[in-house]
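Q: What would this chain look like folded?
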Amino acid sequence: MPSFDARPPDSTLPARHDRLLQTALFATSVAWVLCSQTVAAHAAQGIAFRFDLLPERPLLGALFFLFLLGLGFSMLQSLFQRQSGLRTVLGLPSRPTARSEWTLGAAIGWGSMVLAVFPMALAGTLHVSFWTAPRSLWLLLVNLATLAVAALAEEVAFRGFAYRRLIAAIGPVAATIGMSMFFGLLHAFNPSATMASVLITMFAGLLLSVAWLRTHGLWLPWGLHFAWNASMALVFGLPVSGVTAFSTVVQTRAIGPLWLTGGDYGPEGALFTVLVLLIAIAVLVRLTRDYAWEYTHEPIVAAGYPMDAPPPAAHVAMEKAAMERAATEPQASPGSLVQILPITPQPRPANDEPKP
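A: My prediction, written as structure tokens:
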């Protein structure tokens, strides 16, 4: 059984120091995220112009951003813990269910986007056009890779190292609310952003945070984030947070009420999407019960009362008297001693042959 020191000064001081350390690491990691995003964007732009890779510039930026996040978070991790593997630092632990978690997240992301777009299709607000030039296939593959890497980079930035440090500092509830608000506010700088789109993006951040809390890993939220964006841009041809550059083969213009279509910002600017996200949270919690039990619950440790208590004094005296009488009188029977045989079957030794 663990022992706890009840003295308030001594018991609270280490916890306070740990919270201060975690808060400092969180602030430093957020600053690193913002700086890394700026550096990655400038580096990708310079290389794209230098080598005429303008269509590949978003992919280069996402790769540089992910690399800088891994580098910075690894250095911060080494400040307060022993060196950990890169996958652990990024929030992608090696586990047998990693692929199934990612697939489940992708299914939830895809289903949520279908639910968000379905009322638009019923209302006749979607006007679809197709671009079938030979180059469109290459751009489709580039955009698919870009969305996959960008989704992972965003998850590492917002639900990775910094989020875990904030949980250690202020608890999971406050950390989830704070990180979801931060996630939405940063999207306020996207094209065609509105107050409604910022609020809805906060709900999307809440969904992705719950995905991490249920699995303590980024496999599921990465799959969800990627499928949400990929289906929105590549399958339905709609803007992703106001960005239309990813819609190549399928290009869709939604004309209708903003509460349903989100306008130029896309479905993430439609108030109807809030209902979709709330349904997605309920579905996610329902489908991740096994993962939550496996990866988030504390292991059950066998414990109980100590069984090494000394025997009563009367029993010790009785045994001593019986042993003395047996020693002085060999023919005497130790009548005071009673042997209690077990009534439950006892395990048989491995080398004991069964009786015929």
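The mean pLDDT is 86.
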